[in-house]
Amino acid sequence: MTRKDPVDASASTDDISPDGQRRTRRRASPTESATRPRAGSWRGGWSAYLFVVPALILFIGFVAWPVLRNVQLSFYGNTEIDPTLRFAGIDNYRWIAENRATLLAFRNVALFAAMTIPVQMLLGLTLAIMLRGSGAVRTVIRSLLFLPVVLTPVAVGYLFADVFETTNGLLNTTLRSLGLDALAHEWLADTRTALAVVAAVNVWTWTGFSMAIYHAALAGIPEEVVEASVVDGANSRQTAMHIIAPLLRPAHFALIILGVIGTLKTFDLVYVLTRGGPDHASEVPTTLLLRTLLDGRDGRAAAIGTVVFAVAMIVTLVQLWLYSRRRDA
Amino acid sequence: MTTGSRPVGLTIAAGVAFVWMLPLLYLGQVSLSRGGLDNYATVLSTQGLGRYVLNSAIVTICAIVIVVVFGSAAAFAFSLLRFRGRTAIYVLLLSGLMLPTAAVLVPLTQIHSLLGWANTYQGLFVPYAALALPFGLVLLKNTYDALPHELHEAAAVDGASHARVFWQVFFPLTIPTVIMVALWTFLSSWNEFLLALMFMATDDMKTVTVVPTSFQLQFFVDVPKIFASLVLIQLPIIALYALMQRRFERGIVAGAVK
Question: For chain A, does the N or the C end have fewer beta carbons within 10 angstroms?
Answer without folding.
Answer: C
